[in-house]
Prior knowledge:
CATH topology of the largest domain: Rossmann fold
Distance between the termini: 40 Å
CATH superfamily of the largest domain: Putative sugar-binding, N-terminal domain
Helix content: 25-40%
Amino acid sequence: xxxxxxxxxxxxxxxxxxxxxxxxxxxxxxxxxxxxxxxxxxxxxxxxxxxxxxxxxxxxxxxxxxxxxxxxxxxxxxxxxxxxxxxxxxxxxxxxxxxxxxxxxxxxxxxxxxxxxxxxxxxxxxxxxxxxxxxxxxxxxxxxxxxxxxxxxxxxxxxxxxxxxxxxxxxxxxxxxxxxxxxxxxxxxxxxxxxxxxxxxxxxxxxxxxxxxxxxxxxxxxxxxxxxxxxxxxxxxxxxxxxxxxxxxxxxxxxxxxxxxxxxxxxxxxxxxxxxxxxxxxxxxxxxxxxxxxxxxxxxxxxxxxxxxxxxxxxxxxxxxxxxxxxxxxxxxxxxxxxxxxxxxxxxxxxxxxxxxxxxxxxxxxxxxxxxxxxxxxxxxxxxxxxxxxxxxxxxxxxxxxxxxxxxxxxxxxxxxxxxxxxxxxxxxxxxxxxxxxxxxxxxxxxxxxxxxxxxxxxxxxxxxxxxxxxxxxxxxxxxxxxxxxxxxxx
Length: 491
């Protein structure tokens, strides 16, 4: 019996995470990340012994209509894969993973998934919105989402031209992003003290009034109905572990859908009966996954930076200050003019050849090429037409960088890729991968993945790729990750 069927027979769960970029697995390890979602690929993923399965949909790079259709495709294929593996829909827990700084299709995607689940498996009783990413300082307090204590709508992330927003109050954010379809007054809140009382009971600590906080939380969640929207406070992991344990208790009785960042995923697993546990590889062991040539010498690395948030600018500047790194800039405005011109293929091919020659020269000097898009965002105007142009250009740019990196991937020892859309395109389009295995975190929030055997383009077997979110860390984090892979400082 397969691992998935064994889990099914024992009443276990499969937590399937539809991830809108490749960085949402940044708090877990030892599970497969699928870059395709055909039935056979999903079946292989479901057979993996991990309770977690990530499907890297990369929908943040898509227009709303395309993002909605991709979610529908995934659920349709998932229904067939579950049936083929004899896994009941009652054992499925579906998570729509989104950005902890509230960018992306944060209302559209769970709405589409709720309808698909309802049509195929039965009604969703509630959608829980849990954007907390605790290792990155993203918390939700009294219904307000914060980044290191600062309301997230006052940070640069709220000014994203595709996914900007004007409030950190999550009930008002839901109303804003749904164009009023979800009224702020209708949104329920699962409060921090409720979670604290449930967590205290799990640790054997009685509530001051003698009540059972865990049972009270079970009753609260069990009363939800009609796919109501619920925002969840979270400041500590034990709160999310308690929530996960309650969800486990209600499995088969209530169907919940989650739109969350990374931290809830740990709670859904650790709070139940299948703890993730420590990652099997320490940082030093992850670093040693860097590939070598036939003589045992380390192969060179390459860094790709596509993210354009101000934090990424600071991190890039620090990395380019390293004497062993050489930057190769892709001028975004020039690329846009070429793509919108009359002969884009011919002109872009000439530019790609020029950049490839520059990358080859840097590698020939035994330095690390740092391929990066020019800083700042292009202005495409306002309105839906401008949004469509912006997203289309962003995807074309990500595919361009993926092609450039793929040309050198067979001779590399490791890759560091910064930016979710950039990384998604690199893995799927550039390296041609269908599945990668998450080995663990090189630094908090920075995952190292590797291709499965016999997958992808020729010459990428075992290539470590560090997936680096655009919004993570401080000004030195990118340089620190590079230094770790170059073994210039201890892990």
